[in-house]
Structure formats: structure tokens, C-alpha cells
Amino acid sequence: MLNRPCHFEIHSTDPEKSLAFFKDVFGWSVHKWESPTQEYWLLGTGDCCGPEAGKQPGINGGLMRSRDGKDRTVNTIQVDDVHRVLKAVEAAGGKVVVPTMAIPGVGWLAYCKTPRGIFLV
């Protein structure tokens, strides 16, 4: 069973300032992901591809322009069956806020909130 955080996503009202902050303060790498539908940058927090790959703790993330004018961080949790988990989210009082969608080359994605309003993907 997976059910572990595997990615984080920062929603920013000012992506350029946010990207500069994370590059300057933490030394994260930033790579624009080419998407025809939205602005999205991949954030590398460590050596994900070199000889030390997998030896460093932590996860990588992404940054996108906020769709609703609110800054937030969303945690991505890898699961074995997104449809089953979304049913469990709703049964436990959570809410699906963006329905399941395919992300080419990655898998399925949906956004939901816990009963207290914490965003999950």
C-alpha cells in the first residue's frame, strides 16, 4: 500500500517572486513544464537524477499560478486506487474539489480537501 506523500505543489498569486524565493533561499532548481493549459514549474529540492538519487530524504514539487487568488501548499499522496480513495475521502467528511483527471506520463490526479479544509491531491 502506498499512501505516502510523493510531491508537493505550491499555488502562488505571484509565481515569479515565489520561484525566485525558493531558488535564492533553498537553492532549488526550477524547470518550466510545457503545458498547453497552465503555467507550471517543476521544483527540484535535491539530486533526483545523479549518483545520489534516492539517497537524500525529501521530495520534489511543483509551483503553479493560483487559480483562485489564494496562496497555498498542496500535498500529493500516491495511492494505489484514486477512485477508491476519493470515495473514502467523501465517506470521512472530506470533499472532492477537482474531479479525477489524467496527467500524461504521470497518472491520475484529483484534488480534495479534508473536513478541516486541508488540500490534498
- List segments where confidence is low: pLDDT < 50 over at least 5 consecutive residues: none
Global morphology: globular
Helix count from the secondary structure assignment = 2
**What is the averaged pLDDT score?**
88
Structural class: alpha+beta
- Based on the coordinates given, report the CATH architecture of the largest domain: Roll
Indicate the proportion of strand residues.
35-45%
> Could you tell me the number of beta strands?
8
Output the radius of gyration: 15 Å
Largest sheet: 5 strands, mixed
- Strand arrangement within the widest β-sheet reads 2-3-4-1-5
Which fold name corresponds to the CATH topology of the largest domain?
Answer: 2,3-Dihydroxybiphenyl 1,2-Dioxygenase, domain 1
Give the topology string: H per helix, E per strand: EHEEEEHEEE
CATH superfamily of the largest domain: 2,3-Dihydroxybiphenyl 1,2-Dioxygenase, domain 1
Question: First CA to last CA: what distance?
Answer: 17 Å
Query: CATH class of the largest domain, please?
Result: Alpha Beta
Helix content: 10-25%
Number of domain modules: 2
